[in-house]
Amino acid sequence: MKLVILSANPNLYSTKRLVEVGEKKGHEMMVVDHTKCDLVIEKKKPIVIYKGKELTDIDGVIPRIGASVTFFGTAVVRQFEMMKVFTATESQALVRSRDKLRSLQILSRASLGLPKTVFSNYSKDVSSVIDKVGGAPLVIKLLEGTQGLGVVLADNRNSAESILEAFNGLQARVIVQEFIKEAKGADLRAFVVDGVVVGAMKRQGKEGEFRSNLHRGGSAEIIELTDEEENAALKAARVMGLGVAGVDMLQSARGPLILEVNSSPGLEGIERATGKNIALQIIKYVERNAE
Ligand SMILES: Nc1ncnc2c1ncn2[C@@H]1O[C@H](COP(=O)(O)OP(=O)(O)OP(=O)(O)O)[C@@H](O)[C@H]1O
Ligand SMILES: [Mg+2]
Ligand SMILES: [Mg+2]
């Protein structure tokens, strides 16, 4: 098969692994930088142009679209959908997953456990916002943050008020969330492919850090999910419409709480922690559907 990986950087671990595993399985693997594609749209003839050439006879697409290029990247994925090419991540699901607030609303409708969250339109009444999540300590998150940047823990009511007032003053959109203390600076990442958890890890923040992101110095180890955690992860990926998903959860006294569902989850952390060939699972998923 001729498979396209949409990736702005061919040197990323995830991109390299997908190329390596796809080639090993006898496929022609092409890395296409979606930010450098041109889309030609006319009656019944959608075309993607890359480096001056039309991309033809593509059997499947694996999108690896970074958060900073969601808009254009999604348009490229959608164009492939118009060309009736199978994509491992649907354009609609990609857009959905990039909106933290919309994602939480969708997860909540599916009755999945979530940290209680408040979103207001720069409310001046920060005190009542704080009350709604049960007071401090609480977590404040910039809506467009990634890799743990823009996630702040406010220990007490005074700091929560001043941080909220500062963000509101800057017209920065934030959500306010109850702090899940029992998680003890750790979270779970379940890697879901086509309705199956193909790997799971527990990430622990470094000493004194409540954020478990590997980019913030956290460490990861393989973990066996409970049935409850596994079911929550599968349901979260399903309601988000994602064939490939990284579902992040906190372990709390009231069961697993979904933090977010990533649509371009990295392969490096999960393959290192679990020793599993996750790239192969993604290639097999595309094989099953591209035929
Ligand atoms: N409500 C919460 N209670 C306790 N810990 C939290 C809470 N929210 C987030 N954390 C911790 O902070 C980390 C970062 O938060 P989150 O995943 O929401 O943002 P992000 O990492 O910036 O987003 P992304 O994963 O898209 O880069 C989480 O992995 C978790 O360890
Ligand atoms: Mg995260
Ligand atoms: Mg995310």
TrEMBL record:
Pfam families membership: RimK (PF08443), Rimk_N (PF18030)
Requisite cofactors: Mg(2+); Mn(2+)
Keyword Magnesium: yes
InterPro entries cross-referenced by the UniProt entry: ATP-grasp (IPR011761), ATP-grasp_RimK-type (IPR013651), ATP_grasp_subdomain_1 (IPR013815), Rimk_N (IPR041107), Rp_bS6_RimK/Lys_biosynth_LsyX (IPR004666)
PROSITE patterns to which the protein is assigned, alphabetical: ATP_GRASP
Keyword check for Manganese: yes
Protein name (Swiss-Prot/TrEMBL): Probable alpha-L-glutamate ligase
Species whose genome carries this gene: Gillisia mitskevichiae
